Every structure is written in C-alpha cells, then in structure tokens.
Task: inverse folding
C-alpha cells in the first residue's frame, strides 16, 4: 500500500497483524517507552546537576530547570505545525528524534571532566565548556521531546483501520502505561547511577553516567522506530487546523479594527467579523474553542506548583534522611512516588471515588473536579512548608557575617579548664572536644587555659566556624583551623582527622584517601557516603581499622590521641566530635505532599484533558491540546519569575506563598466554572450542517423559481411577439 491509499481500508500499511494488532504498533510502543525513560531519567537528576556539578545556587538551578520544562511544553505546537503542514508525522518523528538524541549525548558529554583540572572533590575548575554544552543539549532535547510529543500517539492511532476501534483504544491504554512505566523505572535507576563515584581519584558523582544511559535509550528508541519503517502507514500532511484558526481569528480582529469608526451594525460576537471570508461553521467552532481557552487562563498556577516536584522538592529531600532500613533512597528517587500514586489513584478514582460521589447525589462535574484538584495541590504545598519548618529546626545555627564561632579540642592527656569571655568556666576532658560552638560578636577574644592560667588573644574570622587545637603543653603554639559553615551537599558526610601523635599517620577508606597527616596537624574534609565506613590507620608497618555508621548530611572531626596503640583497641581510642548533626527529618514525611499533589494531578490533569476533549469540535481537539500544553509552559515560567524576583529567604514561606496564590486562583476558577455552560459540539455542528443544508435547499428552490420566472417571462414575451405579428398580418 502507498501513502495515497484510503486510510480507512483494512490492512493499513505493509504491517502484519499479530493478535489482531498491526505489528508496527509494537515498534511505536517500544519507542515511546525508551523515549520516556530517556526524558524523565535525565530530568530526574537535572536540578542536582545544576546545583552540585555546575555549582549554581538553588534559585538559579530552579529557574533554569523550569525554563527547560517550559520549552518542552512550547515546542509541541511547532512539532504539530511541521508534521501536519509540511513533513508528516513519520518524518517529523525521525528528524526530531535525531535532534533529541544529539541533545542527550551533549548532556552526557557536558558532565565529563578531566580530573587533572578539578578540585579535590572532583568539581571542574573551568565551567564554561560544561555550561555551554549542557545548555545546547537542553535546548535540543526540548526541541526534540516537545516536537515529537503531539506526533507519536497520533501516528500510532493512524496504524489502525476503521474496523479496529477496540484495538485502537487498547493501544492508547498501553501507550499511557508505557509513559508511566518509563517514568517510574528511569526515576529509580538514574539517581542510582548518579550516586556512583566516577573514577578512582575523584569523589564527583557520576552525572555523565546518569545522562549517558538516557542518551543510549534515546538512540535505541530512534533505531527501533526506524526498523519498523517499512510497516508503517504514513499519512500525508493534510494541513494544520491551528494555522486556519489563527488566520480566521486574525482576519476577524483586522476586519473589526478596520471598521471600528464606521457606522456598521454591531455583531453579536467579535468573531462574526470573519463572516465576510470564512465559513460560519468554522467561526462557530472557533467560538467554542475560545470559550474553553478562556477557562484555561487560571490553569498555569496549578502547573507552577506541580512541576516543583523535580526542583524545590528534590532539593528539599537532600536535607533529609533517606534511610528506610535495608533500603536507602536518593533525594531524586523520591520523584518515583508520583508515577506510583498515578497508577494507583487513576483506577481508584474512576471505579470507586467518582461513582460513590455520584451515588451520594452530588453533581461532581469535570470543572468541579478540576477545582478540587487545584485545592489539593495547594494542600500539598502546605504539607511541604510544614516539612520544611521541621527541617529548619534541625539545621545548625551558623554565624552571621558579623559573628564568629569557636569550638575547643583538648589534644592533651589531661583535662583542662577553659575560660571564655561571656561564658562559664568550661572543663574539657582529655582528647575531647567541646560539645558546642561558642558565638562571639568580636574578632579578638582572650582565652585562659589551665592552672596556672595561660591567657592568649585569639583572632577569629567573621562569618566562620573554627576549632582551637589545645596542645598537651599549653605553652606551645595554639592552632586555629576552619570548620564547615554549611551542611554537606547531596546528603554526604564531611569527615576530617586530627593527628595528635608525634609521628605521621596515613588514613584511607574505600574510595577516599585522606593521605599522610603530619604530627599535631589535620586533614582536609573528605566526603563519605551514608552507611558503615571503615577507616584504615597506618603508622609505619603497623595499622588498625576504625569503623563508624554515618547518616546523611553530617560533619565529624575524628581525633587520634597521642596514646593510641595500633591494634584491636583502636576503635575505643579514637574520639569523634560531631560538628554538624546528620539529617534527622525522614524523607517519608514527603509522602503526604506527594500524595496530595498526585491526587490533585489526577483530578485536575486527567479530568481537564477529558473536559477539553468533550468540549472541543471534532476538527479542533489538537488546538485545545496545544492550549493545554501552553498552560504548562506558562506555569513553569511563573516559577522562575518567583524564584528570581521574590527572593524569599525562608523556603517554607515560599511554599506558603505558592499555596496562597493557588487558593486565590482556585476561587477565581470556581467562579468562572459556575457560569460556564456545557455544550455538545457534535450537536452544534450537526445543527449548523442542517441549517446549511436548509439554506442550500432554499437557495436551490429560489434558483428553480428564478429559472421558472425567466421561462415564463420568455414565453410571455414570445406570445406578445406572436400577437404583434398576427396584428400586422
């Protein structure tokens, strides 16, 4: 069969039929699964890549993330126009998938760096290349994924003939499952890949692998789709209704503006000014579409909240405890809760909740469902704010720009007494650190230690935490070292060792080498993952092992006393000072906010698409789909505007702001919904067609009457001529 064959004929395309389905759709289904895995897998780790690899602050990372998501929902309009007006669906999918794959490869390349040009933690020193490559990659991905979005599902539907309606419905159900299945698996797998350490000599997380696997899956998606090329039915471009709609609206506006100052009779609707050029049925259909699009005006606010799952909520999870017993959840893996809840809630809502509400006698219309969905999303952000308040309670109090903080560590074998300005006398046990930091408003502090007392002035640094190392002989030099002034990133633990021995020691752990620590000196901080870690301490040919369990986001200073004897008692001899306590708020507390946002999505998004489909004319469903996607894009732009302009210092306050804005919009939408009148586009179209047919009948009758009148006039004239001739005779 060629492209010119009737699309309704049985045996569409060259595809064989397997179990009643065209074999070609299996290639399309596999393509969609791989493409969705590629997109959601890359997106799951994207905001962490911005913050921890490119070293952007949270506001910039959030802004760029939502700009990318917005572009992904703007480009479907371009893809639909190209497919319907120029290339057709098949070629559009092929060409844009190539662009898509190149973008994914560019993202993977952007996360590769030379360890010789990196900091100790593996962060590249020169970011220009990585930023440029990632931005190019994201632009190509947005163009590709958005461009093929309106084409793939419709192309799959094209493969069925008219007598395969049941199979077509099953295909769309499987297609939807592939989207959620790819999303679920990718948000589980790619965070695991990201959490790996790339290379032996660097502790940088493996973003190149986390982006590389989605890139490989996109290449697989493209190859699978091309393999099925000979089996597809490829409908030729039929013209794009969106362009026709835009032209008609443009003509109506232009014509109305042209006659604004003339005494033309008023028209019932401003679209009626297009009647001079366009068919009345098309104008009526556009009126129906505009009526629904007007209802779309408040909708972007829902997406403003919803898409922060992948940005703000993921960053929130980095400050929480992901230990679920034998299972450790990465911050970006919490996004998997959304597709799990979707697959659970959709059938529950359809088969239980909605019928139960109907039996209670309540008219739970689609617009009422959408209103409730918006309210649930606001509740989700209130939950997120409450979780953030609990997190803030556990965060350490770091010094302000005008303050200094000091901790003391007794490196000697005997306890000492310490007098600090403005504080009670402190007794410090041997080989122990003070349990807290002392805050000072001045830089110069006089400290008295021991008996007899030895007083020394200490010059502290503003805005910095420091530890004072008190030697065994307090008359020796006192060493002041800098501590961390922020929580360790990505849930890692920051660890350092202080050597109180008179000989050098070498300390190493799996994937971490602290190196050789000189006598009475200290190591730099190194990142340690959560869980049990064993440190090997070597002095010459002697060694011992020291083990400890770590949580998430803590900082410890381990002190090796001068009395240490390498051997089995090593574990008891080394003392630990907790500089920053581990994350204590559990990630499980995010589950309620994910539940409410997903319940809101099911009631808002699924119902909204159903409502739009039911209220759209048969030939303009794509127009409303484009309008729906546009609300998603605008919602993401609102996020970046708030993130860049509001600059709210407290994250919980920002969550409350978003929730309040959505509640306000929810009230406005409920009022608009109250005055909306549901219509049956098919009935209106049928009435227009009937009226047109009646008009045609009337015109036909009028033409017949005119012909008969002409004939009568002709006969009358002929008779008059004959009478004239007779009279002359």
Result:
């Amino acid at each position: 069969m060629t492209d010119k064959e009737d699309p309704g004929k049985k045996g569409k395309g060259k595809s064989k039929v397997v179990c009643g389905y065209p074999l070609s759709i299996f290639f399309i289904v596999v393509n969609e699964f791989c493409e969705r895995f590629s997109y959601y897998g890359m997106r799951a780790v994207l905001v962490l890549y911005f913050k921890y690899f490119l070293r952007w602050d949270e506001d910039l990372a959030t802004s760029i993330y939502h700009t990318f998501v917005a572009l992904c929902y703007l480009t479907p309009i371009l893809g639909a126009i190209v497919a319907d007006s120029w290339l057709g669906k098949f070629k559009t999918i092929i060409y844009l998938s190539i662009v898509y794959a190149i973008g994914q490869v560019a993202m993977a390349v952007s996360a590769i760096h030379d360890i010789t040009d990196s900091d100790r933690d593996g962060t590249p020193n020169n970011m220009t290349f990585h930023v440029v490559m990632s931005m190019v990659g994201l632009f190509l991905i947005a163009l590709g994924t958005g461009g093929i979005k309106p084409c793939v599902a419709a192309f799959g539907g094209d493969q069925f003939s008219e007598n395969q309606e049941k199979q077509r419905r099953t295909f769309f159900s499987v297609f939807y499952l592939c989207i959620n299945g790819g999303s679920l698996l990718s948000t589980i797998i790619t965070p695991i890949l990201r959490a790996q350490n790339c290379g032996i000599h660097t502790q940088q997380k493996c973003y190149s692998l986390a982006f590389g696997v989605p890139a490989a899956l996109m290449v697989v998606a493209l190859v699978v789709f091309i393999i099925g090329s000979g089996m597809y039915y490829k409908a030729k471009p039929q013209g794009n209704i969106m362009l026709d709609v835009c032209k008609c609206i443009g003509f109506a506006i232009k014509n109305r503006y042209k006659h604004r100052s003339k005494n033309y009779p008023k028209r019932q609707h401003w679209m009626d000014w297009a009647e001079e050029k366009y068919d009345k049925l098309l104008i009526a259909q556009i009126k129906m579409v505009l009526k629904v699009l007007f209802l779309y005006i408040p909708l972007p606010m829902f997406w403003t909240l919803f898409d922060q799952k992948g940005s703000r909520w993921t960053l929130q999870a980095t400050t929480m405890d992901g230990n679920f017993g034998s299972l450790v959840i990465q911050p970006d893996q919490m996004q998997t809760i959304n597709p799990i809840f979707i697959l659970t809630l959709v059938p529950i809502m359809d088969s239980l909740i909605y019928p139960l509400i109907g039996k209670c006698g309540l008219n739970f219309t689609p617009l009422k469902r959408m209103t409730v969905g918006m309210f649930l999303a606001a509740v989700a952000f209130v939950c997120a704010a409450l979780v953030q308040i609990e997190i803030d309670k556990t965060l350490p109090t770091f010094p302000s720009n005008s303050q200094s903080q000091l901790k003391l560590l007794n490196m000697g074998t005997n306890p000492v007494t310490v007098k600090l300005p403005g504080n009670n006398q402190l007794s410090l046990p041997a080989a122990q650190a003070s349990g807290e930091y002392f805050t000072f408003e001045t830089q110069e502090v006089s400290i008295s230690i021991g008996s007899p007392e030895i007083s020394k002035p200490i010059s502290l640094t503003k805005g910095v935490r420091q530890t004072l190392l008190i030697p065994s002989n307090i008359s020796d030099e006192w060493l002041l070292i800098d501590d961390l002034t922020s929580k360790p990133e990505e849930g890692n633990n920051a660890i350092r060792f202080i050597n109180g021995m008179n000989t050098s020691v070498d300390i190493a752990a799996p994937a971490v080498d602290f190196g050789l620590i000189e006598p009475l000196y200290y190591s730099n901080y190194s990142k340690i993952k959560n869980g049990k870690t064993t440190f090997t301490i070597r002095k010459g040919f002697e060694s011992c092992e020291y083990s400890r369990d770590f949580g998430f986001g803590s900082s410890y200073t381990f002190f090796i006393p001068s009395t240490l004897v390498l051997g089995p008692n090593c574990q008891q001899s080394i003392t630990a000072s907790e500089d920053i306590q581990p994350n204590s708020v559990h990630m499980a507390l995010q589950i309620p906010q994910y539940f409410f946002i997903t319940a809101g999505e099911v009631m808002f998004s699924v119902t909204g698409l159903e409502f739009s489909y039911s209220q759209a004319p048969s030939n303009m469903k794509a127009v409303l789909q484009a309008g729906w996607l546009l609300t998603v894009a605008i919602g993401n732009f609102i996020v970046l505007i708030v993130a860049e302009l509001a600059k709210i210092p407290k994250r919980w306050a920002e969550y409350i702001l978003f929730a309040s804005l959505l509640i306000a919009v929810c009230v406005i939408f409920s009022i608009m919904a109250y005055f909306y009148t549901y219509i049956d586009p098919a009935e209106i179209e049928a009435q227009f067609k009937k009226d047109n047919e009646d008009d045609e009948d009337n015109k036909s009758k009028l033409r017949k009457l005119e012909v008969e009148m002409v004939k009568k006039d002709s006969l009358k004239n002929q008779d008059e001529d004959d009478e004239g001739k007779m009279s002359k005779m």
